Amino acid sequence: MAEKSKVLVIGGTGNIGTWGQVRKRVTPLMHWLGRAWLRMSTSRSSSEASRTRGFAFVFYSTLHGDIYDHESLVTAIKQVDVVILAVGGPQLPDQVKIIAAIKEAGNIKRFLPSEFGTNVDHNNAVEPAATLFGLKAKIRRAIEAEGIPFTYVASNGFAGYFLPTLGQMGAKATPRDKITIIVVFVKEEDIATHTIKAVDDPRTLNKILYLRPPATVLSFSEIVSLWEKKIGTTLDKTYLLEDELLKKIQESPLPINIILAITHSAFVKGDATNYEIDALIGAEASQLYPEVKYTTVDEYLSLFVCLVPCVIVT
Length: 314
Hints:
This protein has helices spanning 19-32, 46-59, 70-77, 95-105, 129-145, 159-162, 188-198, 220-231, 242-251, 256-267, 285-288, 297-302, and strands spanning 7-10, 37-40, 61-62, 82-85, 110-112, 151-154, 157-158, 178-181, 185-186, 207-210, 236-239, 282-284. The chain is of the alpha/beta class. α4 (95-105) links the parallel β4 and β5 (110-112). It starts with 6 loop residues before the first strand and ends in a 12-residue tail after the last helix.
């Protein structure tokens, strides 16, 4: 059996990379797969550094480095085989620093940049999402220009971000009376699972890994219908025309306008599923790894049925 790669995860402030999320999602999976791994924070704050030290000490080992310090970054990268980047929007441009360090280190077998969303090379996004996707596309071109082996993870929507409120901005719980129709979702643990499965898989080398498990690919109307069946209530729906949504995007402040623009791309233009996967440049995760049990949208919504107003007697 081939030796598994040592993995460096850089980034600790988002849905995939935080202390809690990496511990709960990526870390147990790496241990189960028998992988050695290291983690380095992208933050210079003392609180982030403290969390990184504690986290790495508990599970494996820590690397002292800074993405703004080229030499420390090269030193860290030389100790691993694979680099996974999980930084947030403000640090997306800084990925060029990682690319430069990987190029100098010369030993990386696979680089997974910070994507974990829509396929940025295939979208109909409006601003400000168009600029965000364009930046990620530029990072792709930079990786390819340097000849760095890669896998791009097109995971589409985070279930934990949208499904608890059915995409209703500002809502604190899953709606039971009214809903505005605007809005495909993959549970974050499943994104992490498929990502780690892909790092040593030759079938994903220099390709896009698409996450489109069949029971997570639904129209927003189908998702609403599933929820209505679970709670036994027909929601009072307000239908928003595309022109109205575009106007809301233009008038909304950051970060609401970005969220609405991504919503428009995915659920009005259908950018998550409005094209066939080209086998020459990509592969679908659930087809590559049929042994992985992923969470369906139906199963995920069931988690919220008894939150309120159910009373559970023990």
